[in-house]
Amino acid sequence: MNTVELIEALKEIVKEKGIDEDFIFQALEAALVSAYKKNYGTSQNVKVAINRTTGEIHVYAQKKVVEEITNDLLEVSLEDAKKINPIYELEDIVDFEVTPKDFGRVAAQTAKQSVVQKIREAEREILFKEFVEKENDIISGMVQKIERIKDTSKYNVIVELGKIETILPPPEQIPNEDYNQGDRLKFYITEVKRTSKGPNIVISRTHPGLVKRLFELEVPEIFNGVVEIKSIAREAGSRTKIAVYTRDENVDPTGACVGPKGVRVQNVVNELKGEKIDIVKWSKDPAEYIANALSPAKVVSVEINEEERNAKVVVPDYQLSLAIGKEGQNARLAAKLTGWKIDIKSESQAKV
C-alpha cells in the first residue's frame, strides 16, 4: 500500500465510523515520529507532516534559533536562520527537512499498527460519549443470554444495548421476573464508567428512576412539565407508590397518569411485568399528603408531630389491614414516599 492509498483508506474509515479525521492523522503523525527515531536513531526534535490530499509524508528536524550554538542537532544560529528566512528571531523554531527516501515503507508499516489502535480508542470514546448522555435515562435492550453465577443459584443477564453488551446483575433484577433470550426490555442506566476496554454501562430494572422515566414517556403532561413527579417509593416487582402534583387547576394529576381507561398506567405496569402502582396526589399539607399516600386505604384523621416528623393516623376498623398492607408494605411505602414516620391505628384502638 503506497501513501496515497493509505490516505484514501484512512479517510474512508473515519467517514464510515464517524471518527474525527484530525484525531487519526495527528495520532498517525505522532506514531511516525516514534518510527523515524527508532529506525534512524536520532536524538533530534522531529515532527512529521502528512499532506491529507496527496498522501506525501515529510519529516522535519526542528531546531531552536539561538545566539550561540551548544548542540547543533537541536539549535541553529540566528545568522543561519535569517539566511533561510529573514523573519526568524531568537527562540523561533526552524524546520529542516530530513525525510529519508524509503520512509514511505516505514510509514505504511507504522500506520497499520497505530491507526488500528487509535481507531479502537476513538470508537470506545464515541460509545462512551453516546452512553454518558443517557445516564439517568432509560434504554431499550435485548436479552442475549443468561449465565449462572458460579457456586450460587443466581444469574447474570447479558443485555445487548446496540453496539455494546452489559450485565444486569442479580441486585438490579426484578425479583421473580423471568428473563429469556430475545426478550426486549427497558432498563435504567444508573452509571456509565470509562474503562480501557470501552464504556461500562451499569443498568437496572429495580431503580425508582425506571418508573419515573416510563411515566414521562407515557404521560405527555409529565413530559411537558404540567404534571410533576414529586416522589417515588418502590419495592421492585411488588409495588410502587408515586406522588404527583400540578399547579394547573384544570388538570387532574392522578387522572393524567392513569390515562383514558387506565391505558397509561397499564402500559407502565405491563413493562414492569405486573408490578402494582399507586398514583397519589402530592400536597404541601403533610396530613393530607400522608392520607393520600396510604391509598387505597381510607383515612379518618392524621395527627402531625413536626418536631419528630411523626404522624399518628386513624383509619376505620375494616380498613386497618388495607392501610398497613401485606407484611406492612403499604405503610412502609407510604412512609418512604412522604419521608414521615407513620403510626397507624384503627378507630377502636384509638379510643383505648
Automatic annotation (TrEMBL):
It is found in: Cytoplasm. GO terms for molecular function: DNA-binding transcription factor activity; RNA binding. The keyword Transcription applies. Residues 136-206 form the S1 motif domain. Pfam families: KH_NusA_1st (PF13184), KH_NusA_2nd (PF26594), NusA_N (PF08529), S1 (PF00575). Belongs to the NusA family. SMART domains: S1 (SM00316). It comes from Caloramator mitchellensis. Its main location: cytoplasm. This is Transcription termination/antitermination protein NusA. The keyword Transcription applies. SUPFAM superfamilies: Nucleic acid-binding proteins, Prokaryotic type KH domain (KH-domain type II), Transcription factor NusA, N-terminal domain. Keywords: Cytoplasm, RNA-binding, Transcription, Transcription antitermination, Transcription regulation, Transcription termination. Monomer. Binds directly to the core enzyme of the DNA-dependent RNA polymerase and to nascent RNA. One of its GO terms (biological process) is transcription antitermination. One of its GO terms (cellular component) is cytosol. Participates in both transcription termination and antitermination.
